[in-house]
Specification:
heterodimer; A: Rossmann fold; Rossmann fold; 8 helices; 37% helix; globular; B: mainly alpha; MetI-like fold
């Protein structure tokens, strides 16, 4: 299998970690291009470390990380990121927040000034896709939590990244808003075919969205199970009430329970 | 109705309290026959304010520009040093003990040295105002820069942002509310600094006027000068406060959103 994100036998100890204990240990994850992968595990298992390794914010102590066929030895630049905390900059309007990645990443960085209109149109279009049409002029703090999270997704996607990294992006939202956002990210993924790695502790979320789910053990994180989700696409929210869906969630739940007991 | 009356009394309260304060003062002085030499009545002070108006205005003007000049230097220096401290852990660790040690020195103690260096003139008040007021600016700017959310930093670094990008796009705008907040503290300190130095090391300024009034035992003029100082101080504080609100309205959303 030719993997787009290829994390092979990686052990990572954070510099300055006091006990020298690894955050992840002997971890192998392969994600194909265009695939939607989810990583689930008990809290503190090093899920976020996976994000940092795959985007080149951290480099593994041992093992190799390859993204798009190249070894990662600098920030990868082709990734968009969204977190549980939307971290919008409060002094910029929502639209200007969306344009922030374009002010950093090439080739947009040097084109932005001349093609501002074109980029603003792209941002508006993205906002429309996530149901925030015409909200660009508002400041992020004038939006609700769910709206901010949508805007944060737009910011992660504005530079058309080939890899989208999501670190528990829906964890702080209420159940209804969360399901709405599941559908939004599902549609965006279906339309644009980028690769997604979603870190979450919500098994239903992982099973509903992902093509492949990795279960991690408690710290030090290790992959203890990998499960292909063969539910047909496009998936409707109704699928979450089918027996097959529930069985998969149940099976994964078993892995996590074992992982927690072992800890 | 009750709510409306409540609002009106809230608006009137500061005036009533201030006027009441001076009325009680006036009545007390008259009732107990306090000598003008000890505590002049407000009416005597008002009279003195009028008599010495040209002198008071002249000296207030000098105090104002010397304070603002020292404050201006403090702003530039404080911003630069604060940015250096916030951006580099090495500079931060290295210079903090020095900075804290320097800040611990009462600045009155520096005035004699300034007099030896520059003689009696505008330099000592301006420099004292600067020395006394830059510290809060440095600390606040550095704090603003050092407390960038790690997620924001991750988002930008993953895109290949350099340290300079992050400081320009996020750090500096983020530090602005801290910076403007510190200006209110700094302007008050700068004012204290310039007046202290005028007292000992200048031939103009309200501090100097007070030094001479005190030597002449002109107590009403001393009090008139105090009033001038109070007015000037309030004006400078209000000006920085106004600038703060104009520049960083986004950070004061708690009241705006209501």
């Amino acid at each position: 299998m030719n993997a787009f994100v290829d994390i092979r036998d990686v052990t990572h100890v954070y510099a300055g970690s006091e006990d020298g204990a690894p955050a992840v240990d002997g971890m192998t994850i392969k994600v194909r291009e265009g695939e939607f992968a989810a990583i689930v595990g008990p809290s503190g298992c090093g899920k976020s470390t996976v994000m940092k390794l795959a985007t080149g914010l951290q480099f593994p102590t041992s093992g190799t990380v390859m993204v798009a066929g190249n070894p990662v030895n600098a920030p990868v630049k082709l990734a968009g990121m969204a977190f549980q905390n939307p971290v919008m900059l409060p002094w910029r309007t929502t639209l200007k927040n969306l344009l922030l990645p374009l002010e950093i990443v090439q080739p947009h960085r040097s084109r932005l000034r001349k093609h501002r209109k074109e980029y603003e149109a792209r941002a508006e279009a993205l906002l429309e896709q996530v149901g925030l049409k015409g909200q660009g002029a508002k400041f992020p703090w004038q939006l609700s939590g769910g709206m901010q999270q949508r805007a944060s997704l737009c910011r992660a996607l504005i530079h058309e990244p080939r890899l989208l990294m999501l670190d528990e992006p829906f964890a702080a939202l209420d159940a209804f808003t969360r399901e709405e956002l599941w559908c939004i990210i599902r549609d965006l993924h279906a339309a644009q075919k980028f690769t997604v790695i979603l870190v979450t502790h919500d098994l239903r979320e992982a099973v509903f969205l992902a093509d492949r789910v990795f279960c991690m053990s408690a710290r030090p994180g290790r992959i203890i199970a990998e499960r292909e989700i063969d539910l047909e696409r496009p998936r409707d929210l109704e699928v979450t009430y089918t027996q097959k869906f529930i069985d998969i969630v149940h099976e994964l739940r078993g892995h996590i329970a074992t992982a927690r007991e072992a800890a | 109705m009750a709510a409306k009356r409540n609002r009106t009394s809230l608006i009137l309260a500061p005036w009533i309290f201030t006027i009441g304060f001076f009325l009680i003062w006036e009545a007390g002085v008259r009732m107990f026959n306090v000598s003008t030499f000890v505590l002049p009545a407000p009416s005597v002070i008002a009279d003195s304010l009028w008599t010495y108006r040209t002198q008071l205005l002249f000296h207030s003007w000098h105090t104002l520009w010397m304070t603002v000049a020292g404050f201006g230097i403090a702003v530039v220096f404080g911003l630069l040093l604060g940015m250096a401290l916030g951006a580099s852990r090495l500079i931060n660790a290295g210079s903090y003990p020095l900075l804290i040690g320097f800040n611990a020195i009462p600045k009155v103690a520096v005035v004699p040295i300034l007099v030896i260096w520059f003689g009696v003139g505008w330099q000592a008040p301006v420099l004292t105002a600067f020395l006394i007021s830059f510290f809060p600016i440095v600390v606040n700017v550095a704090t603003g820069l050092a407390t960038i959310e790690p997620e924001t930093e991750d988002v930008l670094r993953a895109l290949g942002a350099s340290k300079r990008d992050i400081i320009l796009k996020v750090g500096i705008p983020r530090a602005m509310p801290y910076f403007f907040g510190s200006l209110k503290v700094a302007i008050t300190l700068a004012y204290v600094g310039s007046v202290i130095a005028e007292y000992n090391a200048s031939n103009v300024g309200v501090g100097n006027l007070m030094a001479r009034a005190s030597a002449d035992f002109n107590v009403p003029l001393l009090f008139a000068a105090l009033i001038a100082l109070a007015v000037l101080g309030v004006i400078m504080y209000a000006a920085t406060s106004f600038i703060e609100q104009r520049m960083t309205g986004w950070a004061q959303r708690s009241q705006l959103a209501a």
